[in-house]
Amino acid sequence: MKYESLKKCLYFLSVLWLLGLNACKHDDLHIDKANDNFRPGFDFVKNNYDLSLFASAIEKTGIGPELNGAGQFTILAPSNAAFNIIGINRPSDFDKMNPDTLKFLVQRHILNERIMLKDIPFNGIDVRYRTLAGTELYASIVSRDNSNTLYFNGSLASRKDVTLANGTLHVLDRVMKSTANTTVQGWLSARPEYSILVSGLKKFGFWDELATEGPYTILAPKNKEFEANGMTAEVIAELKCK
Fold first, then answer.
1. Which of 176, 46, 47 has the alpha carbon at shortest distance from 104?
2. CA 188, CA 220: separation in Å to the nearest integer?
């Protein structure tokens, strides 16, 4: 019985925890040249067909003039296909959203500073930038096939370092999810399908740590995965791993 209990403990711990972000060396792919013919931020977006939905969202929020103004911006522009994934297929679909929610969505895709690929540190697991919405986003770079793949909050930058008159622009393949107002602990608590994982995190002393800011990467099996291996909250409560 002791052996079987230890075996279950080891199984649980093996599926529980961790992974850091993968980051590697990069090449300087951009030569920054001043050019008076570059368009400012909003003008570039609204004149790019593949960004027409994001242009409509910006226009509805009224912040277009700000993005054409002085200063330096980084615009993380979701493509039309990115909006299609979340059910937005035409400009009128934005009318169904609360105006404040739409404004928050747009502003969390904009930084009040210019961030290019060469500016993002490598080998960092906590590289953050503040958005116009007041939230923070994470940036990471992965080296693949001798090229550098850039992500913002897990969204791939399919086109990088587009030069604007007042900053730079990256095209994203997904609308970024917000990292605001929740912790890993809060996220898991709100989802009953992870209750067995939560029981294990509490049992082995990890739960309180997940109330802090992090960052953490959790590989989170749902209850059905644990149950398929004979693990329930009751079994976990009885485990003695000494």
1. 176
2. 9
Burial, 168: exposed, middle or buried (Cβ in 10 Å; 0-12, 13-18, 19+)?
A: buried
Find the distance separating the first CA and the last CA of the chain, reported in whole Å: 13
Q: Which strands sit side by side in the sheet containing 147-152, from one edge to the other?
A: 110-111, 73-78, 167-172, 155-164, 147-152, 136-144, 128-130
Stretch (H or E) spanning 77: strand 73-78
Output the CA–CA distances (angstroms, integers) from residue 190 to 120, 128, 158, 226, 235, in the order listed. Answer: 33, 25, 32, 19, 22
- How many of the other CB atoms lie within 10 Å of CB of 52? 17
Give yes or no for a contact between 15 and 221, defined as CB atoms under 8 angstroms apart: yes
pLDDT of residue 18: 36
- The pLDDT value recorded for residue 35 is 45
Mean pLDDT for 125-136 is 85
Contact 176, 152 (CB under 8 A): yes
pLDDT value of residue 9: 59
Pick from 14-28, 69-83, 84-98, 173-187: least confident: 14-28
Residues 6+ apart with CB under 8 A from 213: 183
- Tokens 């300087």 — which residue? 28
